[in-house]
Amino acid sequence: MKHLLKLYKLVNYEFGVIIGRLLLICSAMILVTIFMLNSAISKLSPHAPIRPYETLYLQTGGHFLFLSAFVLLLILFAHSIRSAYNGGSKSIYTFLTLPLPRQWHYWSKLSAFFIGVLLLYAAQLLTYSLGYSMYENHVSQYSNIGLLVHNGYFLSFIRSDFIRFLVPLSIPRLLSWLSLIITPLCGLYYFQLAVQSKIKPGLIVLPFVPYFYINMMAVQLFMPNGFEVKHLIQPSLILLAINLFFIFHSSWIIKKGAAAA
Questions:
Q1: Which end of the chain is less congested by CB atoms within 10 angstroms, N or C?
Q2: What do you get for the CA distance between the two ends of the chain, in Å?
Q3: What is the pLDDT of residues 195-210, one digit of tens each?
Q4: Cβ distance 26 to 116 under 8 Å?
């Protein structure tokens, strides 16, 4: 229990380092998305076909703003990893002298950014909900001509591939969601450790990751007609297996102190 408390403190420390910039990224995503949605909603008219909310959301670029925020978070993660080894403080040397298992430094940083990704997802869902409230208030003015759809918010979740990506409702989608979240985190960390420790053979695995990742992301966000969700299982399991390699090999590198040499 004492060791778990120390690990908890390490995670808190790592999360405290990034929380300010994380909140800035989430806030910027929310504000820009809401501004663009408000602009698009204000142009709706009872004299023209009313687009479903999920269609309007995609047309205003809500999914691209989320992906941009996700990329910024990954850049923040990469900078955090690199600065621990090459920054002015080189904090990795301090962490490795603590009376704790060395691997805990790896797990604490990885956990902190995983929590950060979950917060980004929560911010995106909040944005989607706020946008729907704006959409519903606007369209309700035209309810006398039958444009207001009951359970529209729930139906938008069912119809939108993007929201089904954020909120997986089946085992194949859940596997895909997990693999798409952890792959860039584990991959970035492993790349830095492999380069820092000069373990070149470990880098051979990395080129295979973008192929599976980009294809799965594209399928999740823009599900082709006739595509069966069960086909997500195989590439998801491949990515998860690669991530297990990243995790175990990264833990070994940290334990041996090779990356801090």
A1: N
A2: 31
A3: 777 766 566 666 767 7
A4: no
> What confidence score (pLDDT) does residue 14 get?
84
pTM of the model: 0.84
Q: What is the rounded radius of gyration, in angstroms, for the C-alpha atoms of the chain?
A: 22
Q: Tell me the two tokens of residue 249.
A: 């090999």
Question: Dihedral of the CA atoms 87, 92, 95, 100 (nearest 10)?
Answer: 160
Cα distance between residue 183 and residue 235, in whole Å: 12
Within 8 A by CB and 6+ apart from 38, the residues are: 134
Is the Cβ–Cβ distance between 175 and 233 less than 8 Å? yes
Query: In 3-state terms, what secondary structure has residue 15?
Result: helix
b/e map of 92-121 (b: 16 or more CB within 10 Å)? beebeeeebebbbbbbbbbbbbbbbbebbb
Alpha-carbon torsion (53, 55, 56, 58), positive or negative = positive
CB 109 within 8 A of CB 16: no
**Joined tokens for residue 158:** 């069912």
Phi-psi region of 226 (alpha: psi -120 to 50; beta: other; left: phi over 0): left
Residue bearing tokens 């663009």: 36
The residue count of the chain comes to 261
Which tokens hold the place of 144? 């006398």
- Residue from 243, 137, 123 nearest 184 by CA: 243
130: confidence class by pLDDT, cuts 50, 70, 90? very high
CA distance 73 to 32: 17
